[in-house]
């Protein structure tokens, strides 16, 4: 039986993650020519081209897409298996993590998360960055350590996810708005002008898909890219914002919130990270703290 060269596993993981021979060579501290020879050996071992020329770049083959997530998992497990047992002393960790999330998540869950970290790991710093798209490339290349959001169909297959909490969509208007008085009906909701929160993946959001399934359509008065901005606009206009209830609880203070007069899907907000960070003790500890903050923080209903 021919034994495969297991040293190729690390090269396979890096090549499929980077999708570029020069960048892979730099990460592995090899020359581009040595990396090209390694790619040739991988092609021979797998019987597949793996990375195929497309213009000036390379694109992964279908087989490479299948292997990408698995290769990262195998390498992470191997490094954990062959490395010394590591005991995390969290109070001694000095590290900065980048968490990509929304303003609503920071406002509702940030205080509890930061309090937990300050009490148990004062050397850990969290930098929150705004999430306006669901592009997983920032997790893949290490620019972002973690992010939160609703998992979409376009999420890269290797990205890890874990549910944090469930949410539902609610309508929001300013105090004194006509929709703040009387019984809410589908006809009244549809007659108003609405704010569409647009994140770049599709022309319409989930509420529009739910309305379309019922043969209805709302009037879009304006579009923007965040729930916080939508609520700010709703606060001083007659526009209606439709937002996740729990995700925006504190942001909705002083506004009128109502239950939507039609059936809508439930949203699951998840935590996302790249599998290369699975075995990292400090990263694993931080994931636990984020889950804990979401589980213990129960925002009060507004409106």
Topology (elements, then pairings):
Elements: H1 8-18, H2 21-28, H3 32-46, E1 51-54, E2 57-60, H4 62-82, E3 95-101, H5 103-120, E4 124-130, H6 137-140, E5 146-150, E6 160-167, E7 169-173, H7 186-191, E8 193-197, H8 206-213, E9 219-224, H9 227-235, E10 240-244, E11 256-259, E12 267-273, H10 281-296
Parallel strand pairs: 3-4, 3-5, 8-9, 8-10
Antiparallel strand pairs: 1-2, 5-12, 6-12, 7-10, 7-11
Helix pairs in contact: 1-2, 1-3, 1-4, 2-3, 5-10
Task: Describe the structure using short key phrases.
single chain, 303 residues, alpha/beta, 5-stranded mixed beta sheet, 10 helices, globular
Would you kindly provide a written description of the structure presented here, covering whatever features stand out?
The protein has a five-stranded mixed β-sheet, covered by helices on one side. With 303 residues, it is of the alpha/beta class. The mean pLDDT is 88. Helices cover 38% and strands 22% of the residues. A hairpin with a 2-residue loop joins β1 and β2. It is built from ten helices and twelve strands.
Helix content: 25-40%
The average pLDDT is 88
The structure class reads: alpha/beta
| SSE string, helices as H and strands as E | HHHEEHEHEHEEEHEHEHEEEH
The coarse silhouette is globular
Strand order of the largest sheet: 4-3-5-12-6
Number of strands: 12
What composes the largest sheet?
Answer: 5 strands, mixed
Strand composition percent? 15-25%
Low-confidence parts: none
Specify the number of helices.
Answer: 10
Our Rg estimate from Cα atoms comes to 23 Å
How far the N terminus sits from the C terminus, by CA atoms, comes to: 70 Å
């Amino acid at each position: 039986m021919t034994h495969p060269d297991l040293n190729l596993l690390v090269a396979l993981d890096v090549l499929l993650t980077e999708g570029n021979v020069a960048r892979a060579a730099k990460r592995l501290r090899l020359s581009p020519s040595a990396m090209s020879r390694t790619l040739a050996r991988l092609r021979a071992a797998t019987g597949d081209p793996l990375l195929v020329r497309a213009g000036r770049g390379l694109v992964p083959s279908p087989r490479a897409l299948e292997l990408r997530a698995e290769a990262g998992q195998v390498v992470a497990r191997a490094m954990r298996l062959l490395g010394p047992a590591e005991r995390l002393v969290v109070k001694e960790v000095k590290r900065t993590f980048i968490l990509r999330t929304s303003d609503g998540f920071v406002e509702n869950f940030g205080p509890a998360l930061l309090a937990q970290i300050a009490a148990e790991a004062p050397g850990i710093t969290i930098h929150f960055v705004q999430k306006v798209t669901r592009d997983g490339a920032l997790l893949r290349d290490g620019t972002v350590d973690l992010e939160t959001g609703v998992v979409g169909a376009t999420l890269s297959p290797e990205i890890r996810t874990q549910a944090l909490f469930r949410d539902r969509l609610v309508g929001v208007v300013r105090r004194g708005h006509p929709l703040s008085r009387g019984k809410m009906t589908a006809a009244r909701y549809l007659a108003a002008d609405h704010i569409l929160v647009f994140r770049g993946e599709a022309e319409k959001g989930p509420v529009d898909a739910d309305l379309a399934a019922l043969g209805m359509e709302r009037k879009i008065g304006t579009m923007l890219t965040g729930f916080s901005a939508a609520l700010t606009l709703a606060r001083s206009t007659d526009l209606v914002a439709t937002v996740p209830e729990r995700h925006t609880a504190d942001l909705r203070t002083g506004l009128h919130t109502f239950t939507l007069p039609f059936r809508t899907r439930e949203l699951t907000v998840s935590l996302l990270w790249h599998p290369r960070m699975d075995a990292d003790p400090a990263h694993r500890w931080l994931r636990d703290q984020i889950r804990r903050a979401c589980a213990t923080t129960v925002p009060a209903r507004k409106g």
